[in-house]
TrEMBL record:
It catalyses: Hydrolysis of terminal non-reducing beta-D-galactose residues in beta-D-galactosides. Belongs to the glycosyl hydrolase 35 family. It comes from the Eukaryota. Keywords: Glycosidase, Hydrolase, Signal. InterPro entries: BetaGal_gal-bd, Galactose-bd-like_sf, GH, GHD, Gly_Hdrlase_35_cat, Glyco_hydro_35_CS, Glycoside_Hdrlase_35, Lectin_gal-bd_dom. Residues 1-18 form the signal peptide. This is Beta-galactosidase. Residues 696-781 form the SUEL-type lectin domain. It holds the Pfam family SUEL_Lectin. Its EC number is 3.2.1.23. The keyword Hydrolase applies.
Amino acid sequence: MVSLRFLLCFLFVSNVYATIVSHDGRAITIDGHRRVLLSGSIHYPRSTPEMWPDLIKKSKEGGLDAIETYVFWNAHEPTRRQYDFSGKLDLIRFLKTIQDEGLYGVLRIGPYACAEWNYGGFPVWLHNMPGMVFRTTNKAFMDEMQNFTTMIVDMVKKENLFASQGGPIILAQIENEYGNVMGPYGESGKAYIKWCANMAQSLDVGVPWIMCQQNDAPQPMLNTCNGFYCDNFVPNNPNTPKMWTENWTGWFKQWGGKNPHRTTEDVAFSVARFFQRGGTFNNYYMYHGGTNFDRTAGGPYITTSYDYDAPLDEYGNLNQPKYGHLKQLHDVLHSMERTLTYGNISTIDFGNSASATIYKTEEGSSCFFGNGNEKSDATISFQGESYVVPAWSVTILPDCKNEAYNTAKITTQTSMMVKKPNEAEDTPSTLKWSWRPENMDNFLLKGKGESTQTQLFDQKVVTNDQSDYLWYMTTVKFKKRDPFLGKNMSLRVNSTAHVLHAFVNGKHIGSQHAENDKFNYVFEKDVKFKSGRNVIALLSITVGLANYGAFFESKPAGITGPIFITGRNGDETIVKDLSAHKWSYKTGLIGFESQLFRTESMSKWSVESVPFNRTMTWYKTTFKSPLGNDPVVVDLMGLGKGTAWVLQSNMLRYHVPRSFLNAEGDNTLVLFEEMGGNPSLVSFQTTRVGSVCANVYEKNIIELSCDRKPISAIKFASFGNPYGNCGSFVKGTCESSNNTVDILTQECVGKEKCSIDVSSEKFGAPDCSGAARRLAVEAIC
Ligand code: GAL
């Protein structure tokens, strides 16, 4: 063991890479080789260390050369100068996992990330420092940014992880898309970017630095493109290779929003088009999106799931056909690496958005035939041959003769995922719940918090983002004969709280939430005040802090007022401004503070009359870990808004990584429900491939695979002109008389994968009036 270890060290030291930019701006050169680089974003805290090896392995099998990640400052430095690199935050372990798999790394230190991450990755304590303005020539900001960036660089250097040290990291990034928002920062913005460049350069990492979406990136910073399409992008310096740092494979999801979807064909088109037009580095944002655990989702209102419709789904399963269709594209592009990075480029314009691009070296040529017309197919005549290029697609011919790939022709299976009920032994079909109320007496009846001020503050200033919850409480006294006291009284609150629950004298008078993109609203409710002392308690809740836009750090959150009581006495309206009253503040909720979610919590829970639709309520249950290895999902059906913990890990909704669970014995699920819900519908499930389908033309080979499980049956198969989609295929007007289901049953059933040669030799030759024949198949896993 000892000697083996020594040998490995020796190999590493001798293997010192150099990443440089080729002098003609044609490519990134690694260790003397010009590269066509395919990369994918995986953010380490959006999965668990146990998941990393599998995710990275699947990325490599998907044809990637590199993994990209941001670094999340607020997660690593939650309190100033107190750092956390444990568990999901073990950046070095993540980078080493990439290295172990033999992939390269792209490290986007930022430290501004955006990324739908809470506050864009900035710590809230940073905002609360005196005189602080983010992302401009503000001394306090620049000092902190430099401090964090330097620390990360030093950590990475210490482990020899930069390519210049023999490690995997070939590129680093400073700032993030500043060019998109820099207008409002004026001259200071321009000076800031220069400072960022100098600061980064001074850290001497030995690999090039990227500044994405930054047209004025100072040399030697590489400006790169982010977007759905980047084929038209031209870097600001002829020596800079054409690089795409974020090719959005889907999109993020907002609470109440649709599941985002970007078609596989369109992602493939954008990549092929980019390489047709001289691109050399493409990074998928995201390749695996994952889950926003804890309170990491940005916002407001970004969901806990960060699936992104990425090639690897939230749970790490292959999202087919996206994963497979892109893998084929990567293989073809890699096979053309030499011609693409050295070849002379010539183009032919055929009109109507059809074009050919030829890369030619002395050894041979490679071609792209592009059709940017969204509606009509193009017929391209090239060197005596004629090629049909479907609408909005690119055909790749590595030898300029034979079509190896077309972005619109999918020959990869589609997988339909299914969720199955928890099949653990002895698990009853419904969970048994106990409950307890959130203790709010001190706030609702006494209005008593931790500190008082005669001012209404932004929530961030008070909580330092240690919690989503902040109580604002005050007391108002009315004399018996106060002209105010009457029937027509109301409480009016000008609020920027993402969610507001209002109580007067212990009674819940109403709740409201901010509409998306409109964070100022007026909450107004009729209230009966009494003579003597009245307690107003307002619970303000954040649902992810803003992460994007110029000066986003100062977007308000909370109850900044003004707050009025209005009363009407005949024609007269009397207004009482409470804004400068004595306000008592309390950060967080008691149940969180007393850690009700901890298994060993001694608090009393009741199994009697478990309530439904009760606000501010805690629920607890136990369950057995589902058998097998399929990813585990908790379906929080029936609940409104709140937080869930599985064995103390705060995971909110959706994916429960296996590493959170006790494989044997009991696991606890604790829920805190704010709005009122019905926990009896909550269930644990596993997710896996349910069926796989293909619909491919003759002369293709299609592989069916149930992701390491045997194929159990062929549900549908037809060779001819079948139509419809996976799950609803229908036979067409022509069909082979051979028994296609039987042929496929023999070839596939009982196997983990099977490869089918779609040919008339095998399936027969039905007469489809000259139209190309297709095989449609649906196999059950
Ligand atoms: C980009 C940003 C990413 C991410 C993406 C949307 O503008 O750089 O961090 O937020 O948008 O998912």
